[in-house]
Amino acid sequence: AMGPAGRCLLCGLLLAALGDTGTAVEDPQPDPKAPCANWMGGAPGYPGHNGLPGRDGKDGRDGEKGEKGEQGEKGAKGDSGQIGSQGAEGPRGFPGTPGIMGMKGEKGEGAFIHRSAFSVGLTGRVPHPNVPILFSKVFYNEQQHYDVSTGKFRCSVPGMYYFAYHLTVYLSDAKISLYKQDRAVLFTYDQFQPNNVDQASGSVLLHLNTGEEVWLQVYGEGANNGVYADNINDSTFMGFLLYPDLDVH
């Protein structure tokens, strides 16, 4: 198929050929702006195929920074991190304010709730041998653990006890023993000097169980009973609980 420009060109060539032969009739010249004469005109052609896509152009410049977007939803809690190293010691704080005073507690048991003690003296001049000496002058016997009728101390609180005696010796020798449950555990001997007043003494620590008894007694014959007492000379016997056993309630 030939377009309008092609057809005009072909008409021109034919006219020129006719002029050269002298046979052509002179016709008026066609308007160059008008399409060729309708003779020799063909049908319009079909549109051509689409061309291949062009190559990508160069990257454009970065645009302006966009506006801040909305806050996203809170994500899930992450795993716990490792324990960090110990930090430096902080400054010392100020003293706190005193709290409200609590109610007063009940009175506790005293340290000396278990008591046992006695202190007695002799009133007779010469005691009988081989029997408990009766100390009937009472200096202290609040718990009544010493029996003035028998001359014996009877244990009521088991524990460790301290016993001591200070005896005036006059007229004859003195042999004294301290007994615990019918067994002599301490002995004292003082030899009398004529025209002289002497002193004999002894002391001991003994553990006693409940019901056990302690007393003083002259041992030997009657010539050894020189324990003496009058209004200016005393012979004394004493004892007290040093500390009770731990299982005493």
Automatic annotation (TrEMBL):
SMART domains: C1Q
Localisation per UniProt entry: Secreted
Bias-annotated ranges (Basic and acidic residues): 55-77
InterPro entries, per the entry: C1q_dom, Collagen, Collagen/C1q_domain, Tumour_necrosis_fac-like_dom
Sequence ranges assigned to domain C1q in this UniProt record: 111-248
Superkingdom to which the source organism belongs: Eukaryota
PANTHER family tied to this protein: ADIPONECTIN, EMILIN ELASTIN MICROFIBRIL INTERFACE-LOCATED PROTEIN ELASTIN MICROFIBRIL INTERFACER
Protein name, as recorded: ADIPO protein
Organism: Nothoprocta ornata
